[in-house]
Structure formats: structure tokens, C-alpha cells
Specification:
By secondary structure, this protein is an alpha/beta fold. The protein contains 14 helices and 8 strands.
Length: 291
């Protein structure tokens, strides 16, 4: 069986992805694809993950994880989705790294499901906006402790992915940039569900349309409905221009609400983020979805 783990990251439309899978249940069922939401993570995965570092993983823990897999007679692929798979918010910025426990968690899953192909799906986000958003979401004491004890300027996604590759080398990794999500939503859902590239989805452009003003929405809708169907690359290029010209700014731009987090800091992280994504694209075992 194929076991797909959608791990967020936090603040990257993880809930929307699950809703999209639910909306496309008919095509998923036809392809023998099942999906499971965050509740199963909290009930089964989190208790096992919390035991990491406290001694050997008990046989019962592995059995508990194996027991939640559906029958291979009815399901060829199962998608587990929770933005906490790589780490809960309280431990996301520790040990001088983003999601420092992600590698060990994927290693545990690789050991728990040795006869199945595990795939990890993760949205990256510019650390310039991700770090302050995460810090603001934490209790004040936790936030201040992280700021005092962590060199935030050194945080990037590279360390996390390298850890996963080192500790769980058989896990296939698919990444994408949160900033690209409106333009690649259909590709993302098809990749998570292992669906054919030409599979029609019920909500492929909903996210993009929700970000546009009335004029842009009308123009985009006309393009999407245009016959005969356009080449995907041509359509996407035209939609990108509409998004650039007609995005509702309050929906695509977020204020950084962390004292001392300046635009200069965001710009520096943005440059490093681009370099990191370019490096990840060349990393063995890693696929990066792009517009």
C-alpha cells in the first residue's frame, strides 16, 4: 500500500487540502484512495511520537500504527493529513532548526510500515513570514524562551529535509511553496492522491478565485471555461498575470505582527528561501511542485 503523509506545514492551508479531498471523494474512491484527517493523528500518531527519545519504541506502538491502515483489498493508497505530523507548534522552533523532530518521526513511520511505500507531502513557506506567525501563535513564555535561545537568522528548511533523507531514506518527499499554492492547487491534489495528470477536480481553481477582486475573478473564470481547453502552461501563465493584477491585497499580504521583525529581515529571509528551494530541487529523493 502507498501511505501518503500530508504534514502541513503550519499556516499553509492544510485544512483546505483535506476539504478538497473530501469534495473529490468520488474520483478518489474510484482510484481506491482513502484519506484520514487530523483526529486520527491526535488519537494514534501523536501518542507514539511523544515516546520518541524516552527509550526504545515498544512493539505495541508499532502494532497500533499498523492497525489503522485500511484493507489493501479496498484501498491501494491512504492519505493521512495533519499539520502536526512533522512537529507540534511548541516544538517547531527548537534545536536551532525548523521541525527538528521530523526526521526521527519519519524514521519511526518507515520502521512501522516496512512493507509499504511512504510518501511525505509538505508545503514550505518563506521563513520571513512563517517564523513570526508561528512565534505569535505560542504562549508568551514559550515565545520569549525561543527568541532568547535560538538564532532565528539561521533557520531554514534545508536542515529538516536533510534529516529526513538521512534518517528515513526510503521516504519519498514532495514539496511545494505555499506562495505558489493558488496556481498549482490541482497538481497538488492529484499528487497527494496519486491521480492521473488529466483527472478533473471539482475545486481546482477555487483558491485562486477566492483571492481575486470581482474583475479578476470574472476574467479568470472566463479563461478557465474557455473552449477548446488551453495548454496547462498557457492557462497558468495567464492566471498568474491576473493574480498579479487583481489580487485582493488583504488576502495575499499578511502583516508581520512581531515586534522588531522588520521588512529588512523579511527581505533577507526571502532571498535565502529562494536559494534553499533551488537547492531542494536538486536533492535526490525530493520532488518540488512548481507553477
Amino acid at each position: 500500500m502507498q501511505v501518503a503523509i500530508h504534514a502541513g506545514a503550519a499556516f499553509t492551508e492544510a485544512d483546505r487540502l483535506l476539504r478538497s479531498l473530501q469534495k473529490n471523494i468520488k474520483v478518489l474512491t474510484q482510484g481506491k484512495v482513502g484519506y484520514v484527517g487530523p483526529r486520527r493523528y491526535r488519537q494514534v500518531f501523536r501518542p507514539v511520537f511523544e515516546g520518541l527519545g524516552k527509550g526504545p519504541v515498544e512493539v505495541e506502538a508499532y502494532q497500533r500504527l499498523k492497525s489503522i491502515l485500511p484493507s489493501p483489498e479496498t484501498t491501494r493508497r491512504v492519505v493521512f493529513s495533519s499539520d502536526s505530523f512533522a512537529g507540534d507548534p511548541a516544538i517547531t522552533l527548537q534545536e536551532g532548526q525548523l521541525y527538528p523532530l521530523a526526521g526521527r518521526r519519519m524514521e519511526l513511520l518507515e520502521q512501522a510500515f516496512p512493507d509499504h511505500q511512504i510518501e511525505l507531502f509538505l508545503a514550505l513557506r518563506n521563513p520571513g513570514s512563517f517564523i513570526p506567525k508561528l512565534l505569535v501563535s505560542l504562549p508568551e513564555a514559550s515565545r520569549e524562551g525561543i527568541i532568547r535561545g535560538t538564532d532565528l537568522s539561521c533557520l531554514s528548511w534545508i536542515g529538516m529535509i536533510e534529516d529526513i533523507r538521512d534518517l528515513a531514506p526510503n521516504v519519498q518527499i514532495t514539496l511545494w511553496c505555499y506562495e505558489d499554492t493558488p496556481l498549482i492547487w490541482g497538481d497538488l491534489i492529484r499528487a497527494v492522491g496519486d491521480l492521473d495528470e488529466d483527472t478533473a477536480l471539482s475545486d481546482e481553481h477555487e483558491l485562486l478565485l477566492s483571492l481575486l477582486d470581482d474583475t479578476g475573478r470574472a476574467a479568470a473564470q472566463a479563461l478557465i471555461e474557455q473552449e477548446p481547453a488551453q495548454e496547462k502552461s498557457v492557462l497558468r501563465s495567464k492566471l498568474a498575470r491576473i493574480l498579479e493584477d487583481h489580487a485582493q491585497q488583504d488576502k495575499v499580504e499578511e502583516d508581520v505582527d512581531l515586534p522588531g521583525w522588520t521588512s529588512e529581515i523579511v527581505d533577507a529571509f526571502s532571498e535565502l528561501y529562494e536559494q534553499d528551494v533551488a537547492k531542494l530541487e536538486t536533492m535526490p529523493g525530493v520532488r518540488v511542485l512548481k507553477p
